[in-house]
Amino acid sequence: MIRMQSRELPAETLAELADLQQEIDNHPTYLERVRAALELWPSRRRRKVFDRVEKELGDMCPGLKRCMFCEDNGAYQIEHFRPKALYPKLVYAWANYLFACGQCNGPKSDRFAIFSANGKVLELVRTDSDPESEPSVLLDPRRDEPMDYLWLDLRGTFRFKPIHPEGTPEYDRADLTLDWLGLNERDELVEARRNAYDDYLVRFEKYVAKKRANCDAETLKRLRRSIERSTHITVWREMQRQRQTVDELRALFEEAPEALEWP
Hints:
Blueprint (H helix, E strand, L loop, with lengths): L10 H15 L4 H15 L4 H12 L16 E4 L16 E4 L1 H7 L4 E3 L5 E3 L26 E3 L7 E3 L6 H13 L5 H26 L4 H12 L4 H9 L5 H9 L8
Antiparallel strand pairs: 1-2, 3-4, 5-6
Helix pairs in contact: 1-2, 6-7
């Protein structure tokens, strides 16, 4: 997971979303707003405004419109980061949308957790009033930099590990994110990250070889683009971050230091 580059919706699109939100906000009680959110979303979701929403979300996705959580599958489901079953006031909030695959969106579903006043992880359940808007425990790739919390083992397991020590809020956020999304438990993801490392390495070696041969700028640009649009971009980011500890990477980045700025 990496942090997504923020994008803004056109004013008219935001206004249309605000009108849809007003349909829910007009209900007098929290439970009525939850009911309206769950009932209205499937039909309102089919309105043309969401063509524009999906276009912007797709442009924000890593690689070629990959899931914002796993980076492996195609993104095709609008995911409410704060679930509509708990936060009906955010059903049509642009900042609350992620683009995800079904394999990530399904397990996450309506689950949400915050830090309680004493710093404990509190998983929210439906009540008869608006839940607290305390900071999320689950990492939000539109607001958080997941790589500040997680690192990927490039030389062994190709599984994510928390950066911070157990007992810290940062550890709790990393641990819950890995658990709820199954980022280490889905064997196909682990294997895909391993394959992505090999693929990035081959592409980068080709770039460096072409650079040594004084190849034309257009070819180098195309090779750079192939790296930037590949799947599992976190693997590439970790290759940049861990270059000093992996000999084959250290040598390549020394020859092409500009690659530290990609993408």
